[in-house]
Amino acid sequence: MHVDRMRVLREGFIAGLLGAAIVAVFFGVVNVIGGHSPFYTVDHLGRALVGTAPAGGPGSEAGPALAYNGLHLLVFLLIGLALAWLTAKTEQHPAFWYLAFFGLVAAFIYDFFFVMMVAGRAAGELPWAEVAVGSLLAAVGMVGYLLRMHPDLRRAADEGADPESRVRRT
CA torsion sign, 34 to 37 to 43 to 44? Predict the structure, then answer.
């Protein structure tokens, strides 16, 4: 496999794992603060996804939670791969920055509405603000990681954001 493809795959895989982990930890902390098990939200989302009612309360069966976590991880890996590819393309062709930005926004919106759709079927409603904050934290973490892996791109973005550093063409 070409070196650039391997880099995109590696960075996409890590970015996806990072995004999924950030969301999982965020909701685990939110659940504990709310007086629930750290797996309370994922249990409810898993049951809503597979269409099962709680048999003995949250956490009585691992299947629905594992099903949701598997889907959650898969979606984040795909988003991570897409963002890593867009990052590599943006490094080669700076005009891809716009596509990368709107790709990130689309991924954030997709994640938000997918979770809210599943949450709407859950017995307990998942507050939209929690989903938005979790998704935003994941996006920031993933983009932060990718920018750290591409310091030249980060430097170019910093220079492009500063009007003083732009070269004037007449």
Answer: negative
Over residues 62-86, the pLDDT tens digits come to: 788 888 889 889 989 999 999 999 8
> Exposed, middle or buried by CB within 10 Å (0-12, 13-18, 19+), for 146?
buried
| Residue ranges per structural domain of the chain | 3-151
> What is the pTM assigned to this prediction?
0.78
For the stretch 142-151, pLDDT in tens is 989 998 998 8
Burial 93-110 (b: 16+ CB within 10 A, else e): eeebbeebeebbeebbee
Alpha carbon 136 to its chain's center: 8
Q: Cα angle vertex 122, ends 117, 126, to 5°? A: 70
Non-local (6+) Cβ contacts of 143 within 8 A are: 83, 104
